[in-house]
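Usage example:
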Amino acid sequence: MKKLINKAEDLVKEELQGIAAAHPDLVKVHYDPNYIIRADAPVKGKVATVSGGGSGHEPMHGGFVGFGMLDAACPGAVFTSPTPDQMLEATKAVNGGAGVLHIVKNYTGDILNFEMAADLARSEGIEVEAVVTNDDVAVQDSLYTAGRRGVGVTVLAEKLCGAAAEERRPLKAVADLARKVNAHGRSMGMALTSCIVPAAGKPTFDLGDDEMEIGIGIHGEPGRTRMKLKTAAEIVALLAQPVLDDLPFKTGDQVLAFVNGMGGTPLIELYVVYNELVKICAGRGVKITRNLIGSYITSLEMAGTSITLLRLDDDLTKLWDAPVKTPGLRWGA
Amino acid sequence: MKKLINKAEDLVKEELQGIAAAHPDLVKVHYDPNYIIRADAPVKGKVATVSGGGSGHEPMHGGFVGFGMLDAACPGAVFTSPTPDQMLEATKAVNGGAGVLHIVKNYTGDILNFEMAADLARSEGIEVEAVVTNDDVAVQDSLYTAGRRGVGVTVLAEKLCGAAAEERRPLKAVADLARKVNAHGRSMGMALTSCIVPAAGKPTFDLGDDEMEIGIGIHGEPGRTRMKLKTAAEIVALLAQPVLDDLPFKTGDQVLAFVNGMGGTPLIELYVVYNELVKICAGRGVKITRNLIGSYITSLEMAGTSITLLRLDDDLTKLWDAPVKTPGLRWGA
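Running the assembly step on the lines above writes:
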């Protein structure tokens, strides 16, 4: 295991210390329980957006805390759900009196714990809505999931709902927006290599020197199929076609295309992937009008990529273009 | 070799096609010769900043073209200097009548070719200044370099000079600023793994499963020493102490700390590195007042990190904070 870490058990704490030291203008970090909130929380009269999940997917979610995106993020141990007390404390810390939206990726532990935290928050008089993302078309059920996994759409929902909350839209509207984003988005990923969970010290799965896994989950959960390595054009087709077919995306649709790196894949390759995706979408009459290219929802040092397409309308486009100021995503501010 | 590419010989062209498709609002791409210019080039009356170098270091340099940073970037083949005709054509394309600054990393091929391009541009009546960066303290001479290598400071110089050019400072002032940034900045890097140049198809160097290389160059050039893997705290000390000692940075100095990922290193590790760097700088009385954390000057999929410190003053801080709008670096716009 070759990583820039100290002790495995200190990794998340030290990462949080690094984030706190680097971005005091944007976020505040609370320890025991661990959560990250925007520096100016709570924002009075604004719906607060909260997400969370296992660590190891950085910048998601902690890197998306700040103006125009998340009010709070709860990082669990690596690839492990955060606990209800983290979520409850974060929810209370960012509640500005207009209610709190929990954006929850569909993993069994995340859902159970966020449900418990929401119940506890409600018992303290805080209005909470929860929306579950489940955009991964690769497999119906998975190692940690009943139903589809929540992946790339989560990042987009956090940005879009954050922008809507900044406009002071009410809780019901922001929650409905999250449901709409999830309903209109689809994703699929692949891996060239496994990653190593520090506490385990060995690869999560084995992949031959000439093999790749199509439909992988962000914790290395098995995908659809393992096969010999192919060209970028062939790989992107294997990801994009199921994504396009599933919604389905149709001729004339305008979409946001999100090409994500899994953590160990350099940007030069992501632009090659994007180039192939543009051709496939054009062949289907689907027009990419916005894009996001980079490593935003990662699996430690896994090499690979995922593709997310989100059908846009004027409102979503406007919310996407709105200013955002977080450690991991920033424009217009 | 596991990469998301098609044919090795098409990699740079397809990457450029991806960049062109993704960012038409920010940049324009020219092929044969290959260069990237800002979408609104030439900007009349503004000094134009041009850089370039081998591909494989993305987002540097092409990802830094846009408002407030570079006017043009010339990408060579992977880890190979661009040619004088690329640099000449790019220089002519962005010349807005106020002169052109070439920001050149200290590699023998880059320097020779930029010198030739500058001479040719001058013979066509364009005022050109060139500044060479050589901030890497690891080794005195290297595989492709007489004198120190130019690395992380180059990214900072591009941002700072771009901001100065937007203020309509004259060519001499922008060139002097680049020299000042280089004089006040120092860097050193390390690798946990090699990378594979696609055309070669095998690792640039061999590193044992329990080894790392301290002082590595961005093309995998040998560094200071190869040793057994250590903790993040020890590794950061091995990088930061020579950097601090070299300038030297002194008690009371305010610095920009740039923690860079080499391409295959995930963000979670870079925050651990930053956390260690904060402690070491604090121990020396050096205050980090600005930071940049992410993979900005990469070596394909190499795993590792580099640390750059730049001594700041009020002018540099103001220029750093100025708006920038490029594919790879963006804030305030």
